[in-house]
Amino acid sequence: MPDNNKNSSFVHLPAFRIASIAIMIAVTAIFTTIIRIPTAPTRGYLNFGDVAIFFTAITFGPWTALIAGGAGTALADIIGGYAQWAPYTFIAHGGQGLVIGLIVYAGRKKTKGKTGIVSLIIAFVAASIVMTGTYFLTGGLMYGFGAAATEIPGNILQNAAGILVGASLSAAVRKAYPPVSTYGW
Amino acid sequence: MIANLYLQGNTPVHKFDPRIKLALLLFMTVSFFLTDSIPVTGGFLFFILLLVSLNGIKQVLRSIHSILPLLIFVAILTPPFHPSGKVFYAFHSLVLLSSDGIREALRLIIRFTGITSLFFLFFLTTEVDDLILSLMWFKIPFTATLVITIALRYIPHITHIYSNVTDAHKLRRGTDFEMSGGFRNRMKNLFPVLVSVLIQSIRAIPALAMALETKGLGFNAQRQSFRDINIFGSIILQLVIAFAIVLVVVLVTLL
Questions:
Q1: If you measure CA to CA, which chain B residue comes closest to A79?
Q2: ipTM of the prediction
């Protein structure tokens, strides 16, 4: 296994980026479809798609998160029988991943590589606005703004779970498997 | 748990060329937004459900089953926003049900059900391989289709890792490992599992990247594929049918 590559140029090859995007698409699709926790307040399920997107954005950066978050959740929609949502899901979750990644990476530049709480909170707010807003607009066009508004609280809850679990997962994985911190771009 | 919607069959929709099907899918989705007439979109919906029912009546229910809760929401929440027309039910001065409200709710329900069953029909009758080959035929870059193909290949693999890791944790913790109780209790058990699954998945990246390198990724030439799009019957006949559908839809929505 070429795990500990001292040759850092390897991670900048197109093949490496394609490989990391493809694997993270698969991970995001699985987190969205298989891993769910029932939530009491909404009587629905909390899926872990947003956890995977926050994880990807914080660990791999904005560009991997844009494609992996968008395509992973869109693929999960197609697999789960909600294919009519796939294009909007791609925009909503891809934009979400891009925004988180950009904010967290900009924050890291200022704090010399550390992921600050402040940048995470700003990322959470921006991600909620992008994701919830896209679903509200497209849902409104598809079946009216009245019904679309009922989904806003659930979507914000998804983002809250996403940042809590996703950020701690990212910290745990980077601690347990240090090479991953060179994979971002 | 990961199930594909594709169902083997012998219906005319199955035999249709995937490229034409893909183009018709996009066209029909747009056509649902072109007109507000309930009989016209209702007719489209009926036609689509008819094609779905060729695969068995059960499939019709399956296509609508997933969006049923949302349809109920739409039916309840849309009428109060359109209080004009003949009033059927009002709470004090608040009009809750009127003729315009019912029409608006019906219009949204038909459009949403129509688009849903349309996509359902497409994925019920089209294999993922054929979809990817069609996308390549439409000049979607090879890299993009490659990424999706690899991701589809790795989904069962990572699912397997997930169940293995879960089983390992169960063995180690015994009855302690219960996926029940509140959010905190579940997270306490789920978190270490997810960390292991993520590390296992991430460790696959360098090996996969090397494999892609040795396969000559980035080599600029026309790609060939081992598998070809299956063509049943005459492609010209299929094109004629597709154009007939487009023509009928355009005429009906514009008139």
A1: B4
A2: 0.87
- Whether B36 and B158 share a structural domain: no
B77 and B103 belong to one structural domain: yes
Q: Is the pLDDT of residue B2 over 50?
A: no
Q: Say if residue B92's pLDDT is above 70.
A: yes
Whole-Å CA distances, B40 to B34, B103, B164, B254: 10, 14, 52, 10
Chain centre to alpha carbon of residue B42: 21
CATH architecture type of domain A8-180 = Orthogonal Bundle (1.10)
Q: Is residue B36 within a helix (H) or strand (E), and if so which, with residue range?
A: none
Residues B95 and B54 in one domain: yes
Residue type, A74: A
CB contact set of B135 (below 8 Å; sequence gap of 6+): B22, B144, B145
Pick B198's closest partner by Cβ from A5, A81, A173: A173
The CA distance from B232 to A110, in Å, is: 60
Minimum CA–CA partner of A176 in chain B: B199
In a domain, B228, yes or no: no
A30: nearest CB among B67, B147, B155? B155
Please tell me whether residues B145 and B246 are part of one structural domain.
Answer: no
**DSSP alpha helix (H) spans, chain A:** 14-33, 49-60, 62-80, 86-110, 117-143, 145-149, 152-176
Give the span between the Cα atoms of B75 and B107, in whole angstroms.
10
Interatomic CA distance for residues A51 and A164, integer angstroms: 8
C-beta atoms of B207 and A1 within 8 A? yes
Residues B101 and B25 in one domain: yes
Total residue length of chain A: 185
Does B227 fall in a domain? no
Minimal CA separation from B34 to chain A, in Å: 13
Closest CA to B7 of B43, B44, B53, B72: B53
Tell me the shortest Cα–Cα distance from A36 to chain B, in angstroms.
10
Determine contact: B150 vs chain A, CB below 8 A: yes
Contacts with A86 from chain B: Cβ below 8 Å = 119
User: CA-to-CA distance for A59 and A97, rounded, in angstroms?
Assistant: 11
Residue B13, exposed/middle/buried by CB under 10 A (0-12, 13-18, 19+)?
Answer: middle
* pTM > 0.90: yes or no: no
Residue B111 lies in a domain: yes
- Domain span including residue B187: 136-214
Q: Is A43 helix (H, G, I), strand (E, B) or coil?
A: coil
More confident residue, B106 or B140: B106
